[in-house]
């Protein structure tokens, strides 16, 4: 699928740190409980670190105790794309930025999540940039 922002991998490598590149462009995962936004409660908007697209609001962030920032819904329904992921010998749903195709994390569904959507978007902190609300 073509993305609105489509750059050669050499350009992504030049613009991102090695750790950012690994997660955003190679679908890596940052270590649990070490991400910058895991426990953040600052009101604001979380954007894609690779392209700046607004992805999640702090009002949809919740404590899931999974080790990564968790949200129950994206900011807009068309902000992310969901792709079946059969890596690691299991079926999961990968979450990517719809604007640039960068890997963000995974989404899980189930009645066990204390959210209005029964979903947990488990997102790598390193794939996000938080812009705090003004005021």
UniProtKB/TrEMBL annotation:
Keywords: Oxidoreductase. Residues 9-133 form the MsrB domain. It catalyses: L-methionyl-[protein] + [thioredoxin]-disulfide + H2O = L-methionyl-(R)-S-oxide-[protein] + [thioredoxin]-dithiol. Its EC number is 1.8.4.12. It holds the Pfam family SelR. InterPro entries: Met_Sox_Rdtase_MsrB, Met_Sox_Rdtase_MsrB_dom, Mss4-like_sf. This is peptide-methionine (R)-S-oxide reductase. It comes from Streptomyces varsoviensis.
